[in-house]
Amino acid sequence: MTMKNSQAEKIYEKLLLLQVNDDFMIDVLVLRKKCKDLSEIICVDDEEIIFSYDDTPEFENDLKELMNKYNLPNIFHFPLKTFIVNNFLLKPEYYPEITPRLIPTIEEPFFYTSEETGEDAVHFPKNWGDEQFVAIEIFPETTINDIASNWDKIAEERDRLYGLDRSKSERFVKSKNIERDLLIYKLRKEGKKYAEIKDIINGDVRFIDKKIEYQEVSKIIKRLKTKAEKKVPPKKS
């Protein structure tokens, strides 16, 4: 069976093949020359400070233009920059992995003193209170195996957002009686007596194999509430 390459292996292979492209290598050499010619050592108060062109916004713009020219997504940024600056290509195991992040980005509110009133106040960002989601960025090189191999940290970020503790949660097992039990709960909320609930449930063709005794009603309701609390915990603020 043919093994599918990972995202990192695809990026590595593409960067290897790009070195056969003469135009690409000319562009790379131009950037390397800039890094050499425009980098210098500056003395400030008898202290030498290294000014590297590859640490400047100008270099980042050059790199972005190069990536756009050859249709390379953002995931190529780190290995391509290393290739240009250090003149060697990193092995796939050092490439960025799929990283979950929360969207939209929401800044924390902060305290400040009003210039007009001199009183302390709190500034809330415009999207404060918006719901956040866990997102991953998928590139042309991304495979289902990449997502699977990084699933633990994706799930960890998801659980952190929703306030879940997987070490304490039960394995999900489909309840055979949840529709019946929910109807029992609703009937009781409507004020029906246990005997009435028993007759309604036992007379419903949907629950022909799930008949109950009136003594079971309170136990079923209590069990349903407990399960609901475990399966749908409140979201942490």
Number of helices: 9
Radius of gyration, taken over Cα atoms and rounded to an integer in Å: 30 Å
* Coarse structural class: mainly alpha
Residue fraction in strands: 5-15%
Widest beta sheet: strand line-up:
1-2
Strand/helix succession: HHEEHHEEEEHHHHH
Provide structural commentary.
The chain contains nine helices and six strands, in the order H-H-E-E-H-H-E-E-E-E-H-H-H-H-H. By secondary structure, the protein is mostly helical. Strands 1-2 form a two-stranded antiparallel sheet. Strand 4 (about 110-115) and strand 5 form a beta hairpin. Helix 7 packs antiparallel against helix 8 (about 195-200) and helix 7 (about 180-190) crosses helix 9. The two termini are about 50 Å apart.
Brief synopsis:
It contains nine helices and six strands, in the order H-H-E-E-H-H-E-E-E-E-H-H-H-H-H.
How would the blueprint of this fold be written?
Blueprint: H1 7-18, H2 22-37, E1 40-44, E2 47-51, H3 57-69, H4 77-86, E3 101-103, E4 110-113, E5 120-123, E6 133-135, H5 144-149, H6 151-162, H7 178-189, H8 194-202, H9 217-231
Antiparallel strand pairs: 1-2, 3-6, 4-5
Helix pairs in contact: 2-3, 7-8, 7-9
List keywords for this structure.
single chain; 237 residues; mainly alpha; two-stranded antiparallel sheet; 10% strand
